[in-house]
Amino acid sequence: MEMGKSIDPPQEDVIIEAIDVHKHYDTGKVVVKALQGVTLRIQRKEVVAIMGPSGCGKTTLLNCLSGLDRVTTGSIRIANQDIRHLSDRQLTLFRAREMGFVFQTYNLLPVLTGLENVELPLLVSGVSSRVARTRALESIEQVGLRDWARHRPAEMSGGQRQRFAIARALATTPSLVWADEPTGALDSTTSQEIIDLMLTLNRELGLTFVWVTHALDIARQASRVITMSDGLIREDVLVEALSKVGTFEEKGAQG
Ligand SMILES: Nc1ncnc2c1ncn2[C@@H]1O[C@H](COP(=O)(O)OP(=O)(O)OP(=O)(O)O)[C@@H](O)[C@H]1O
């Protein structure tokens, strides 16, 4: 390493920074230590996969990093803003502006059409109905489902529902999209289509993605794989580096 040269990325490239984050759930009978000192940085334009056995703290980490839940101790900065200093209302607005969310079960409202589902976060954030419609149609176009805009979720396949969920996440033009098991309810062909869509959006729009996944074949398509166990990060590697040393399959086989 060259003397005096920092290996840290420039601060403006860091979208999420977590320092020594602990999260405890007090159930009344026991205290579950779901995160036990997590430190990490996520840079803009990365595609990060978070893996690990059930119960290791993946969803808790996603909830804390995205400001959906408060940490017990430690600090989290999102786009250079320390979220400890934000009230719940400020945090909700900040999250709506900076982030989109995609879930395994799509979370579309059944009584609304695809278009109305995509418009919803825009209307909630105070955008006029005319602008919301234009912006929603743009993001539906980006996921290739313009012809399905007036259909309700019940008339759609799982893959189409997840595309609408991605369009909804894109509608507010966030810098980062969190996806918790985004392909968990889909067959392998449709899963790959959804992954390809997210990778295209990463390349074309520079959108940062964080995927929580159990599936190794999905994780290996990210640019970076973080492996957790017992509330801690055990490994944090660039996929390119992994495939170079040829250990990815072996690691997957063990996991
Ligand atoms: N609201 C809660 N109250 C109490 N304990 C919780 C709560 N949420 C999570 N936990 C516990 O915290 C630990 C981490 O859970 P978490 O859901 O983050 O794991 P995970 O890695 O996402 O698991 P999975 O892959 O099964 O979704 C587990 O022991 C879980 O039981």
UniProtKB/TrEMBL annotation:
Cellular component, GO annotation: membrane protein complex; plasma membrane
Domain spans labelled ABC transporter: 16-255
Cited CDD domains: ABC_MJ0796_LolCDE_FtsE
Keywords, sorted A to Z: ATP-binding, Nucleotide-binding, Transport
Pfam family, one: ABC_tran
InterPro entries from the UniProt entry: AAA+_ATPase, ABC_transporter-like_ATP-bd, ABC_transporter-like_CS, ABC_transpr_LolD-like, MacB-like_ATP-bd, P-loop_NTPase
Record GO terms (molecular function): ATP binding; ATP hydrolysis activity; transmembrane transporter activity
PANTHER family linked: ABC TRANSPORTER ABCH.1, IMPORT ATP-BINDING PROTEIN
Protein name: ABC transporter related protein
Species per Swiss-Prot/TrEMBL record: Ktedonobacter racemifer DSM 44963
